[in-house]
Design a protein that fits this description.
Blueprint lengths: L1 H8 L3 H53 L2 H12 L5 E4 L6 E3 L4 H14 L4 E6 L2 E10 L2 E7 L9 H41 L14 H49 L3 H24 L8 E4 H9 L8 E5 L6 E4 L1 H18 L8 E10 L2 E7 L22 H4 L7 H11 L3 E6 L5 E8 L4
Parallel strand pairs: 7-9
Antiparallel strand pairs: 1-5, 2-3, 3-4, 4-5, 6-8, 9-10, 10-12, 11-12
Helix pairs in contact: 2-4, 2-5, 6-7, 8-9, 9-11
Length: 446
């Protein structure tokens, strides 16, 4: 359960890479926008001022060449144009300065520099907005209204469109780059998870273009081949051990039955032989290859089957509170081995102090898609600091457990089997006393 909690709180490498790349590229876009605004502002202002100054100079030259009557006719003709209007200045004219921001100040300063110090630049004349430039001819003042389209800085809408396009491209590019960077690691993680699940045929591409990834893949493939070879050797060794040890044990049992006359000694020797045979079974179970076949398993029937092997009511009593319709996704043999070992562990170490009988209760809790099966005895429990070590091979929790016979592999076998079935084992002391084992498995819909 702790692993799921860390997986929920942790951030995957893809999203971390994506966030860092997006931050880097977004910072670059912001710096580019700031630099562009700084660089384009002054050239645009100079260009706008030069165009307006040319228009004013042309209008002034035309008015200067005309006499009084023709000048009035020319003013009327120019006033009828859409882009240019010329009108005489009146003493009561009300006008507001054009310079309101950095761009307009640059335009105004450039116009006064080109047209002369007496030039007036207004953004509103007598309540009419526009770019108005005032100049004088022979002591007479005139106003020229120019088109304001080329004298306006880029508005926020334009900048917003361009910045939005840049940011969207940044996010898409970051996602693509992060995916390309993390694809080899994702493949490696998937192959490693298959190796952990016992699928030793997993292989990675050794011809990838990136030299570092290529070397990692080659090393992983060599490791997978070595593990497959070790697994094969182990299977052969296990078969040999099972045969070579059980054969002399069978001879010893036969010799005991035929040669030993003392019934008490014969019974003790038979118990020792049975114990050796059980220890061999434990070693074989723990070293068994990790191949599992995940199918829906009827839990209640499986518990009844495994509990039927423990017939002596003076040693153990098993009560199942699991609903009859519960199915989990597991391997039938592996799950049976899990419950068998837990029952045996309770029979050996979980007997009541006064009754001498191990009272075992199997219960069930549903949490989302998971089923949590709990196997609890009513013994003395285990010291809290020793709970994490109970699944360590050959470890026994306390002196009382050490006094019992066994190989010390029961809970280690349970833990390994649960991992093979993509489940989880958690051991704890019950509040009312005794040890409780929580088995977390996927529920199966049947």
């Amino acid at each position: 359960m702790a692993e799921d909690r860390h997986g929920f709180l942790g951030v995957s490498l893809f999203w971390r890479t994506f966030a860092l790349l997006a931050l880097l590229l977004a910072s670059g876009v912001a710096a580019w926008v700031g630099t562009l605004r700084a660089l384009e502002l002054e050239p645009r202002a100079i260009q706008a001022a030069q165009q307006t100054a040319s228009l004013v100079n042309l209008s002034r030259a035309a008015l200067r060449q005309a006499d009084g009557i023709n000048r009035l006719t020319l003013i009327k003709g120019l006033s009828s144009q859409r882009d240019v209007r010329v009108q005489p200045a009146e003493p009561g004219d009300r006008w507001e300065p054009f310079e309101t921001d950095r761009f307009s100040r640059l335009v105004g300063d450039q116009l006064k520099s080109v047209l002369g110090p007496g030039t007036r630049v207004a953004r509103e004349l007598n309540g009419e907005r526009g770019l108005w430039v005032g100049f004088s001819i022979d002591g007479d003042l005139y106003w020229v209204q120019a088109d304001t389209g080329h004298t306006a800085a880029l508005n926020m809408t334009t900048w917003g469109v361009w910045i939005s396009i840049a940011l969207i491209s940044t996010l898409l590019g970051s996602g693509l780059i992060a995916r390309l960077i993390n694809r080899p690691l994702k493949n490696l993680s998937f192959a490693a998870s298959r190796i952990r699940g016992g699928y030793l045929d997993s292989r990675l591409d050794e011809n990838t273009l990136t030299s570092e990834i290529r070397e990692v893949n080659r090393g992983f493939n060599r490791m997978a081949r070595e593990l497959a070879r070790v697994e094969e050797d182990r299977a052969v060794m296990l078969a040999g051990i099972s045969h070579d040890l059980r054969t002399p044990l069978a001879r010893l049992r036969l010799e005991t039955e035929m040669s030993v006359e003392d019934d008490e000694a014969k019974r003790a020797m038979a118990n020792d032989i049975d114990q050796l045979d059980a220890i061999i079974d434990k070693f074989m179970d723990y070293a068994r290859p990790g191949e599992t076949q995940m199918v829906p398993v009827h839990v209640a029937a499986l518990i009844d089957r495994e509990a039927s092997a423990f017939r002596d009511p003076n040693q153990i009593k098993i009560v199942s509170k699991v609903p009859r319709d519960l199915h989990v996704l597991a391997d039938d043999i592996e799950l049976g081995r899990v419950f068998g070992n837990l029952f045996e562990n309770a029979r050996r170490y979980g007997r009541g102090t006064y009754t001498g009988v191990a009272e075992v209760v199997v219960s069930y809790v549903k949490t989302g898609p998971w089923a949590i099966l709990s196997v609890r005895d009513h013994g003395q429990g285990v010291a809290p600091d020793k709970l994490p070590q109970l699944t360590t091979p050959f470890f026994r929790g306390d002196a009382a457990r050490t006094a019992a016979t066994g190989a010390g592999l029961g809970l280690a076998i349970v833990d390994k089997a649960m991992h093979r079935m993509a489940g989880q084992l958690e051991l704890a002391n019950a509040p009312e006393g005794g040890l409780i084992a929580h088995l977390r498995l996927k529920r199966a819909n049947v």
